[in-house]
Amino acid sequence: MPARSRLALVRARLQLPTLRRATGLLDGRHEAVWKGHGDEVDDLHVYTPGDDVGDIDWRASARSAQPVVKRYVATSNVALVLVVDTGRHMCATSAGGEPKHEVALLVADVVAHLAHQRGDRVSLLAGDAGRVVEVPPGAGTTHLEVLLRRLQRTFDPDAPEGDLTRLLERALRRTARRSLVVVVTDEARPGADDERALARLRTRHEVMVVQVVDADLFAAGLGTAPGTLAGASPSRDRGRPVVAPPHSRTVRDVVSGWSLPAYLRGRRAVRDAVAAARTARHAEVRTRMRRLGVRSVTVESTHDVLDEMVALLGRSRRAGR
User: Fold this and answer.
1) Where is the DUF58 domain (predicted)?
2) Which domains does the chain have, with CATH numbers?
3) What's this model's pTM, rounded to 2 decimal places?
4) Alpha-carbon distance 77 to 212, whole Å?
5) With 70 as the cut, is the pLDDT of residue 13 above it?
6) Over 90: is that where the pLDDT of 181 sits?
7) DSSP characters over 11-71
8) Least crowded by CB within 10 Å, which of 16, 54, 297, 298?
């Protein structure tokens, strides 16, 4: 396992204007619950696009002949809870051709990095039908690195099947303070069996769901999600590979262990039937979450994660106004 910091790795992937925008969206999430910044001025810095013009120090700007902005010490009472489904289905292939758990890990990295920028406390609940891994709330680089490394080790292709209901119920019991709960799972979940636990969690906390999309191995290419990406550009335009595995390569279902016969792949009737079933399932899951007031987003690859997370936070901020 590489020794490099996961926070440093995700920071290197993020462009500063986008990062500032994402952090700002998180600042504005619950205006009635916490402030965007504290009352104590930390230092001054030169204005850059994206800064709040209301924070300009006009006296300092006049002295320096350029706009200068006050930087405050963040005063935050945000508690973030990462609930990550690590059942063996999360080791299947995503729509971008990467293992789904790599996409899920990047979602966790981005959430942790945004929390680190604000000094928020983050806890982790991850697991499957056989185990639950917990990391208690904490802040700071060391805590977040431990949390992310612990999550990384939890993904295992030989793990039991997922049990999202168990994780949601554990989050409800363990989290007394009102929090922002980010659930990371796949496109088939939350299912009907998870609805009661999700509804109970939603009554106490704000809940967001990030769904990692499965590859469509029956199509000519890996294809796209049954739904539409919320970000500003299509996934293909973000640089992700869209290449189907060779028909000569054996494809195995990670949950059942069954192999997919090569002659079924690429057949139009089979492809259309699978696409219709996925679309219907996607609509059912989205309807369930809308009914419960849970906002969600789908991600197809690591190239989509930042745009989709920014879009999700933006929708939630606008809805809260």
Assistant:
1) 46-215
2) 37-73 (no CATH), 79-235+261-319 (3.40.50.410)
3) 0.76
4) 29
5) no
6) yes
7) HHHS-HHHHHHHHHHHHTTTTTTS-SS-SSEEEEEE--TTS-GGGB-HHHHHHHTS-EEEE
8) 54
